[in-house]
Amino acid sequence: DSFPAAQSRAWKQWYQRRVRGERFVLIFTEQTLYPPFHYVRKVPQKIIHCFTLLQLLQLGALCLVSFGGSAYLKMFFPFVIILLMPIREKVLPTLISERHLSALDGEH
Fold first, then answer.
1. Where are the alpha helices (DSSP H) in the chain?
2. Is residue 12 within 8 Å of 57, Cβ to Cβ?
3. Which one of 9, 34, 40, 90 is separated from 17 by 20 to 30 angstroms, measured CA to CA?
4. What residues contact 61, with CB distance under 8 A and at least 6 apart?
């Protein structure tokens, strides 16, 4: 079946963009030197940086909860993970257009 192959390809693309931190590096790169990623051509620089900042804030919240010294704070880790879904589905579309979000998510 081609479905597992498509999932594997999508996972590889997600991993390459998120783990290598390409969008984070764009914050410190002059716009004329941006690599030719599809989302760089479709999404304005300000939106890319806003999206990256929001993701870094979410990562910071996860780190705060998971690496916090208190065992009581660590108990909230699953709830923070669950909160990421409504943030992506409800909050982000109010800040960034759906067209730009789909380009940033890699949904051509």
1. 3-19, 22-26, 38-42, 45-67, 71-74, 77-86, 92-95, 98-105
2. no
3. 90
4. 80
The pTM of this model reads 0.65
- At 25-80, the pLDDT tens digits run 666 666 666 666 666 777 888 898 898 889 889 988 888 888 887 888 888 889 98
Three-state DSSP state, 42: helix
Amino acid 47 reads I
Handedness of CA 17, 22, 26, 28 (dihedral sign): positive
The half-sphere exposure of 16 on its side-chain side, counting CA atoms within 13 A, is 8
